[in-house]
Amino acid sequence: MKMKARRCQITLGLLSFFVLLVGSTGALSQNRLNISEVKEGLHVITGPGGNIGVRLTSEGVILIDDKFPQDFQEIRSLVAEVTDLPVRYVINTHHHGDHSGSNAGFLQIAEVITHKNARENMVRGNQDGLPRLIYSDETSVFLGGVEVRVFYMGRGHTNGDSVVYFPDLKTVHGGDLLHGIAPFIDYANGGSSRGWVGTVNNILSLDFDTAIPGHGDIMDRRGVLNFRNQMEAVRQRMMTLIRGGLNAVDAPSRIVDSNLSWTQVEDGLFMQRSILGFFDEISVEIQ
Ligand SMILES: [Zn+2]
What we know:
six-stranded mixed β-sheet; 9 helices; Metallo-beta-lactamase, Chain A; seven-stranded mixed β-sheet; binds zinc ion
C-alpha cells in the first residue's frame, strides 16, 4: 500500500510537471489573450494591449478596440468561442497601436469607426488600417436591436478619445481615459490633464455601474470617481510645487508623494513619460 501511494505521488508530480510545461509554452506561443464575460452580451478580451470590449448582438459583433497587429487571428478565435456570428464593426477608442493594431485585418470584414482627431493622429503616425468612418461629437451603431453609443467627451489621454456606452447594460468602455494604474498623458497628440478631469466628469454623467478601462481590471463607479480624484490631487500637487519654485528638472523626483500612488514610478507610465509635459501644462495654466 505504502509503495503504491508513493508511486502515485511520483506520477502526480510528473503529471503536474508536464501540465506546467505545456501551460508555460502555451502561454508563450498561443493563449496570450483571454476572454471573459462582463455582463450578458458583453465580454472583455484581456492580455497584452488594450482591453477589448466584445458586444454580442443577434446580427453580429461590435468590438471596442483590437490590440496589436499580431493579435488579429487570436481575437477572432476568442470571439468565435462566444458567438458564431462575424465581427461587423470595430470602434477604436483612440489611435494608439495597442488599441487599433488589428485594424488592417478587420477592415477586410468590418467597418472601423473612430473620432476624427484619432484618425488624424493615425494618418500623422503613418499607421496601417485607417478607419473608413469618423464622427465629431457623438455617433451610434445599431445592430441586432442593440444600440452602442460613442461619445467624444473632451481631451484627456489624447485629443481623440472615444467613450463607448452600452445603455442597456449600464456599462461604459472608457479606453485609456480609464486606467487601472497611473495613465500616460499623450501631450504630443493633444493630451491634457485639465481636460481629462472634465472628460471623466462627463463620463460620470452617464448612467453606468460598470466600466471597462483601457488597461487593468473592470471598474465600478467608485473606481472611476477615485481615478478622477487622483488626477485632481496630482494636478494640485504639481501646482503647489510650481508655486513653490519647482524646476522642470526636479519635477520627476519632487512630485513623489506616498499618498499618491500615481507619483510612484512602479505605478505605471505617468512618471516616466508624462511628467515633463505635465510640468509644462500646469506651469502655463497657473501663469
Ligand atoms: Zn493609449
